[in-house]
Amino acid sequence: GGSSQRSVRNIVQMAQYEKPFNPDINCGIRHMLFEPLSPITAFNIRQNIINALRQFEPRIDLMEVQVIADYDRDSFDVAIYFRVKNIQDPITINLSLERLR
After folding, report:
1. Coil, strand, or helix at residue 2?
2. Which of 63, 64, 58, 19 is nearest to 46 (CA)?
3. Nearest CA among 100, 70, 3, 60 for reference residue 49
4. What is the reported pLDDT for 33?
5. Are residues 93 and 8 in contact, defined by beta-carbon separation less than 8 angstroms?
6. What is the pLDDT of residue 62?
7. What DSSP string runs through 40-84?
8. Rounded Cα gap, residues 64 and 43, in angstroms
9. Does residue 51 or residue 25 have the better pLDDT?
10. CA atoms within 13 A on the CB side of 54
11. Which of 13, 16, 57, 64 has the most beta carbons within 10 angstroms of its beta carbon?
12. What is the spatial distance between Cα 69 and Cα 51, in angstroms, rounded to a whole number?
């Protein structure tokens, strides 16, 4: 499942930077990274990540997405739990999204 892991990570990171060369993949979290660090912002980021992964990565079954505000580092900690279809072992990806100013 290496390629799907890379794909999941790319989708979330493209969402963070909204790469202009791939306008299709944009789950629109970049502007949220300017918002205050709060549970509401974390919830909105989580929803957008879930929607983007469902839309752009059909090879996986998404199990859980957690987004937690990390006040010490001024960032959001993201954990994505999923299975690649037809493979039993669940995969976890952890990312940190820095707040932008």
Report:
1. helix
2. 64
3. 60
4. 85
5. yes
6. 94
7. HHHHHHHHHHHHHHHHH-TTEEEEEEEEEEETTTTEEEEEEEEEE
8. 13
9. 51
10. 9
11. 16
12. 20
